[in-house]
Amino acid sequence: MQTSAPSTHQAPLDLCAALDAAVNAAHAGAAILQSYAHHRADLVIDRKARNDLVSQADREAEAAVIQELRERTPQFGIVAEETGGKVEGEATWYIDPLDGTTNFLHGIPHYAVSIALIAHAGTRVDADGPLAVDTPVVGVVYDPCREELFNAIHGVGAWLNGHRIACSRTQTLDDAVLATGFPFRDFSFAQQYMPTLHDAINRTRGVRRLGAAALDLAWTAAGRYDGYWEMGLAPWDVAAGTVIVREAGGVAEDMYGKESWPIGGYVVSGNQTVAAALKDMIAPHLTRKPGS
User: Fold this and answer.
1) What is the pTM of this model?
2) So where does Mg(2+) get bound (predicted)?
């Protein structure tokens, strides 16, 4: 999904303006989700595939997010979960209007709107010159149930409701609480994943699975989790959380080390020490990336 390199003479992207647009868009999408939250029985739910659901809440929230972003940042491409889109321009928005759809539909108050801006290789985001690789530069994850807004700007920092956040200081897996996500839709990677879960259960303080990848990453950035790993996700699941974790001083990487960010949905993250230990724990069980 790399694009051709923009001119190296362009002005740097206005990341503050992009963040403001993303925050407004996230609130617009969340308002629609919450308007449906108390009337879930009335939702029309479609089944895209096994355990892959979509409702009009997803679709309407996505439309609200896209409308806001197109009005404020028409120069950027858009890739969204329900309506697709394409990578173009100096940067592209990646949108998940409802991360944690199953939780939402079952009345479990743990879901979020996730919006990220990926600046493409050759784009300038600061005075240091053009980026060498595609890089997440703005991230917003908004949890409307707790009214928690996580956000970050590349090279500047990460915040929760306006307060700076940082990854935990836990130094060993023995003392770590990890988050993960089980295979639930795509089981092609189950033989790689299940041994990692077995090892994590036996080698850590505990493993949590709450069902919203964007929040797993945001909570890792805030130090609630010490690390997080998952396989078989979509780019929009991890795009915003990646920049939030990185700007909180942590690691959020492609598990296979092939991509500049976990665009393929195989993510490992945490503070510097725990992420390294987690990668070492996972590595013996990796064979090859499905589809590669």
Assistant:
1) 0.92
2) 81, 96, 98-99, 237
